[in-house]
TrEMBL record:
Record's signal peptide: 1-22
A Pfam family hit: DUF305
Domain of life according to the entry: Bacteria
Transmembrane segments: none
Keyword Lipid metabolism annotated: no
Annotated region (Disordered), positions in chain: 31-54
Organism this protein belongs to: Pararhizobium capsulatum DSM 1112
The entry's keywords: Signal
Entry protein name: Uncharacterized protein (DUF305 family)
Keyword Signal included in the entry's annotation: yes
InterPro entries in the record: DUF305_CopM-like (IPR005183), Ferritin-like (IPR012347)
Domain DUF305: 56-127
Amino acid sequence: MSLKQKIVASALALAFSSAAFAQDHSTMDHGSMGHGAMEDMATPKGDSGPSSTAFAKANARMHEGMDIAYSGNADADFVRGMIAHHQGAIDMAKIELQYGKDETLRKLAQEIIAAQEGEIKMMKEWLAKNGG
């Protein structure tokens, strides 16, 4: 298995584990968490270097953006949640470009930015056409 295939496999595993995380928290009322809860999410666990702080803040923004009011329209709800999720991926990829040194991962980060920006554009257009 090539390094790129290993990275893609790892990214898919992470995506599936992230979906499980999101599902476990789907019944959580984030609105009742109070302002401090989002601040806690924006505080890195472990190393508190600049990249850790940036990743923690990006993660908190993504989760806040994914906390949508569900409409009962699965298509629209999917798109609304995924826009924030994709923006989170872009934000994390930009942090990799700012702080990361591994050229393979930096290239992957650039590819993620390009792909996710295109998908966000498509989803926003879909929402505009479909009353979102």
